Amino acid sequence: MYGTASPAFPRADDAAQRLASAEATMTRPAQQTSAAPDPTAALLYVCVERAQPTSSLAAERARTEGMAYAQDRGLTITEVIIDPYGEPDPGQREGWCQVRERAASGTVGVVIARWPACIAPYTATDLRHREISRLHDAGVHVRYSWAPLAAAGGEDK
């Protein structure tokens, strides 16, 4: 009866072990939560209107251009994320939030979109710049697959 610890009165050596464990945890260096992104791993982001008769054609064209863009530059598409067009703030779109998550986790080094308006419309350039800055801060490049932009380098700096 005297040699066992009760939940209300733990033994002194148990308390010492917990204290040592807590000190070790406090002095251990923090681990980085995200790895450096693979510069050849690319995510293809497609944002098109859904209720239009030409929507599937537009989505397919964006997908085809993005795949060709990646192949020509030695990039590997690891995921395709499709969002419906209409919400100007990318932070309010489910698909774009997934793009943010992939960038933050370091699973992609490049996000390919057909053109800048896929990220945010031209009337909301501040939102687009905010999102591109967020990706750049995570070490992720944004590139555009539409031929005229791709010919000029296709990267948003």
- CATH superfamily name? Resolvase, N-terminal catalytic domain
- Just give the CATH class: Alpha Beta
The string of secondary-structure elements, in order, is: HEHEHEHEHE
Q: Low-confidence segments, ≥5 residues, pLDDT <50?
A: 1-33
**Proportion of residues in extended strands:** 15-25%
- The mean pLDDT is 79
Count of all domains: 1
The main pleated sheet reads as:
5 strands, mixed
- Radius of gyration from CA coordinates: 24 Å
CATH architecture: 3-Layer(aba) Sandwich
Task: Give structural notes.
With 157 residues, the protein is of the alpha/beta class. The protein has a single domain, classed as Rossmann fold (3-Layer(aba) Sandwich). Helices cover 41% and strands 17% of the residues. The chain is built from 5 helices and 5 strands. It has a 5-stranded mixed beta sheet, with helices on both faces. α4 links the parallel β3 and β4. The radius of gyration is 24 Å and the shape is globular. The termini are far apart. The N terminus is likely disordered.
Summarize the structure.
The chain is of the alpha/beta class and 157 residues long. It has helices at 12-27, 55-72, 94-105, 125-137, 147-151; strands at 41-48, 76-84, 110-113, 141-144, 155-156.
